[in-house]
TrEMBL record:
Keywords: Oxidoreductase. NCBIfam families: MMSDH (TIGR01722). Pfam families: Aldedh. The lineage of its organism: Bacteria, Bacillati, Bacillota, Bacilli, Bacillales. The keyword Transport does not apply. This is Methylmalonate-semialdehyde dehydrogenase (Acylating). InterPro entries: Ald_DH/histidinol_DH, Ald_DH_C, Ald_DH_N, Aldehyde_DH_dom, MeMal-semiAld_DH. The keyword Oxidoreductase applies. It comes from the Bacteria. Residues 21-482 form the Aldehyde dehydrogenase domain.
Length: 504
């Protein structure tokens, strides 16, 4: 029996909540109970085009506000994020399924990127050269682009939208956020907090929707830039359509992240690091470690024995169960797809060290999976090649560090990787030779802090420009370079017209 009232959500446009007009809705579920908790409006092309028009008006005003005044709003927004952390964490947990403590962690990482964006006055400073020739001074400035959009995935309902959009607004753009239709609630809370912080109407809008809304954003001529985060298949399609429509596009996709464990590494440390990095958030992180690559049979046997023991102690439970290490996966389809990957891996010859397909849980209707560990996985198996977005993790055994580096470099993804070792020389070889965008050494999840750039290589990212750090400023601005000369009043130009190319 349905226990919760099903809310009908809205968009947030031009400073107010706006009901959906398309007549199309998506269902939002609580993955911990399987209950439908809300209906989210799915915007039509016409609705999206209307938001773009209003955002364009918002941009006209906001881009003229001094950067100091813009940053005042960011300071207030930051304070409100801190004040509303519990409320946001509950909203994330309820519709995403991650534990409250994990959700709180994601909000903290989001706040880091607000801290960085508060430095916009410094980051927007251009370059200036005096007397580049003929008493001409040359300087550059970073101008906002106009209306920009962020299209977000379900797995970080607050961190990704905040990281993607705050700098965009700080540098003077107007933002349209298209959250995942699976987790729309926290984006509406963020919109409310931006308004309360004093952001003028039209500068930060939320349009809910699915492919139709995304396509409308990608084809509207007044959308200047698209920052997308999601699966590789959609990231590639968004990149292609967006660039074809002359937009600046950065599209972050999926990953298959490895932890290499050297024979000299401390096995207990490596196992503990693997547990959190691999199974945290039910493995639904783009930077989750999916593959352990122990080097040498002895290392592998010791690592798998200890890991199996610990994996069987992990507790999966409701998002607000304080004892739970992680919660359910996002949907019944996601659960079925993870089970299918495990079944196929066993058929292909992988050895099941821990089986999480039938967990004992309090609520049978939730989308729970306990941790699964598959040993002796080989590179021809599907479970090695594809991103599995759920708690089924694998072990691939190799004999040397070089073999580990080669197989990671051959993989189509290149998001994150980490090495556990006590050897400086191994670490140096690894960090130098590995073809991956975010690299750790004795760090479980090498996700960069808010003031460093974030982004994968290969098919984990399409387009240029990274998230988080200084690249965000470059992505959301265009550079103008001015060459300027001023004559004094007594100036009398007696020179002839010069037809040669100017030089200093
Ligand atoms: P997804 O690709 O299904 O959805 C992402 C966004 O795209 C959503 O807003 C969705 O509404 C929209 N969308 C879905 N299908 C579309 C289509 N056919 N055309 C246009 N838009 C479409 O991804 P998800 O399941 O929400 O998120 C999980 C994926 O995101 C994983 O693959 C994960 O690795 C990846 N991810 C990557 C990063 C990163 O930084 N590289 C960060 C977080 C998540």
């Amino acid at each position: 029996m349905q226990k919760t009232e099903v809310k009908t959500l809205t968009h947030f446009i031009n400073g107010v909540e706006v009901e959906g007009k398309s007549g199309r809705f998506g269902d939002v579920f609580n993955p911990s109970t399987g209950e439908k908790i809300a209906k989210v409006p799915l915007a039509s092309t016409e609705e999206v085009n209307e938001v773009v028009k209003l955002a364009k008006e918002g941009f006209t005003h906001w881009s003229k506000v001094s950067v100091g005044k813009r940053v005042e709003v960011l300071h207030k927004f930051r304070a409100l994020l801190v004040e509303n952390t519990d409320r946001l964490a509950y909203a994330i947990g309820e519709e995403n399924g991650k534990t409250i403590s994990d959700a709180t962690g994601e909000i903290t990482r989001g706040i880091e990127s607000v801290d960085f964006a508060i430095g916009a006055p410094h980051l927007l400073k251009g370059e200036h050269s005096v007397n580049v020739g003929g008493e001409i001074n040359s300087y550059s400035m970073h101008k906002p682009l106009g209306v920009v959009t962020c299209i977000a995935p379900f797995n970080f309902p607050v961190m990704v939208p905040v990281a993607m959009s705050t700098m965009a607004v700080a540098v003077g753009n107007a933002m349209i956020l298209k959250p995942s239709e699976k987790v729309p609630h926290s984006a509406l809370i963020l919109a409310e907090l931006w308004s309360e912080a004093g952001l003028p109407a039209g500068v930060w809008n939320v349009v809910n929707g699915d492919k139709e809304a995304v396509d409308a954003l990608l084809t509207n001529k007044d959308v200047m830039a698209v920052s997308f985060v999601g699966s590789t298949k959609v990231a590639e399609a968004v990149y292609e359509k967006g660039t074809k429509n002359h937009k600046r596009v950065q599209a972050f996709g999926g990953g298959k992240n490895n932890m290499v464990i050297m024979p000299d590494a401390d096995i207990d440390t490596a196992v503990n690091s693997f547990l959190g990095a691999a199974y945290g958030a039910a493995s639904q992180r783009c930077m989750a470690i999916s593959t352990a690559i122990p080097v040498g049979e002895k290392t592998a046997d010791a690592f798998v024995a200890k890991l199996t023991e610990k994996v069987n102690e992990l507790k999966v439970g409701k998002f607000d169960d304080q004892e739970a290490d992680f919660g359910p996966v996002i949907s019944a389809e996601a659960k079925a797809s993870v089970i299918k990957s495990i079944d196929l891996a066993i058929e292909e010859g992988a050895v099941l060290a821990a089986d999480g397909r039938n967990p004992k849980v309090a609520d049978e209707n939730g989308y729970y999976l306990a941790p699964t560990l598959l040993d002796h996985v080989t590179t021809d198996m599907n479970v090695y090649k594809e991103e599995v977005f759920g708690p089924a993790r694998i072990v691939v055994r190799v004999n040397t560090l070089e073999q580990a580096i080669d197989l990671i470099n051959e993989h189509e993804y290149g998001n994150g990787v980490t090495l556990y070792t006590n050897s400086g020389s191994a670490a140096r070889t690894f960090t130098d030779q590995i073809e991956v965008g975010m690299v750790g050494v004795n760090v479980p999840i090498p996700i960069p802090v808010g003031y460093h750039n974030f982004g994968g290589w290969k098919r984990s990212r399409f387009g240029e420009g990274q998230m988080f750090g200084p690249d965000t400023v470059r992505f959301f601005t265009k550079t103008k370079t001015v060459s300027e000369r001023w004559f004094d009043t007594s100036y009398n130009d007696e020179s002839k017209t010069d037809f040669d190319f100017p030089s200093s």
